[in-house]
Amino acid sequence: MYLFYTPDIAVTHCLSEEESAHCVRVLRCTRGDEILLTDGRGTTYTARITNPHPKHCEFEILTSESQQPSHPFHLHIAIAPTKNMERLEWMIEKCTEIGVDEITPLLCRFSERKQLRTERLEKIVLSAAKQSLTPYLPRLNPLVPFDDFIRAINPHQSRFIAHCYKEDKRLLRDEIKRGEDVVVLIGPEGDFSEQEVQDALTLGFVPVSLGNSRLRTETAGVVACHTVILMNE
Predict the structure, then answer these.
(1) What does the DSSP 8-state code read for residue 116?
(2) Which residue(s) pair with 160 in the sheet?
(3) Tens-digit pLDDT profile for the chain (233 aa)?
(4) Tally of CB atoms within 10 A around 4
(5) Which are the contacts of 85, defined by CB distance < 8 A and separation ≥ 6?
(6) Domains, the chain, ranges and CATH?
(7) Cys bridge to 200: 62, 82, 142, 205, which one at CB 3.0-4.6 A?
(8) Which residues, in sequence order, are bridge partners of residue 34?
(9) DSSP β-bridge partners for residue 36
(10) Are the CB atoms for 89 and 119 separated by under 8 Å?
């Protein structure tokens, strides 16, 4: 059953215009059909369509169910946006499907993309969450300077920086502690600057490797996300 996103379900029993169009025009749902809804905060609803209008499809709630998150920790990927937006979109889609909880785009010294509009990215997050039938919608933050981010992040969690410089690094998979909140920093195509790496290490970030291969930025984001999830299974 297709999952519809209804963040305002507490105040209105009507799908948004975009969701209404998809429900009525694309899926051809009609009065009396049952649909599955989520508020994006962990609750799913079974509902029945009462007014199949293509701009404001109305429904009545039949049942609701609150679900626990799929994992008992918070996974935060902070990544420098790629110059090619399609690569970043792919990474965000796949990380959402895998189970990321939060994504923050980073503005780094060697970033090739220094501005970022998140409207399309938010739609990709939503689409991927619905595709994977998750009742929790990951948080997508605006672009933030690297220095601001590393100083604002909560120090009471596992913090890692993945970079390509030749120095002692540990495999990310060996550093994951089950159930602990995790943030992983992924640099731009030109990597983090040496100063950025040093600043992160000074603040307690642990330098890690994602494996033997040198990965593209977007691939590294997906690998980091999957590694954390897998090591908590």
Answers:
(1) -
(2) 184, 206
(3) 789 999 999 999 999 999 999 999 999 999 999 999 999 999 999 999 999 999 999 999 999 999 888 899 999 999 999 999 999 999 999 999 999 999 999 999 999 999 999 999 999 999 999 999 899 999 999 999 999 999 999 999 999 999 988 888 999 999 999 999 999 999 999 899 999 999 999 999 999 999 988 899 999 999 999 999 999 98
(4) 23
(5) 113
(6) 3-66 (2.40.240.20), 75-230 (3.40.1280.10)
(7) 205
(8) 48
(9) 3, 46
(10) no
Beta strand extents in the chain (DSSP E only): 3-5, 34-38, 43-51, 58-66, 75-79, 102-107, 139-140, 144-145, 158-162, 170-171, 182-186, 206-209
**One-letter amino acid of 82:** T
d(CA 87, CA 70): 26
**CA angle (16, 94, 154) in 5-degree steps:** 90
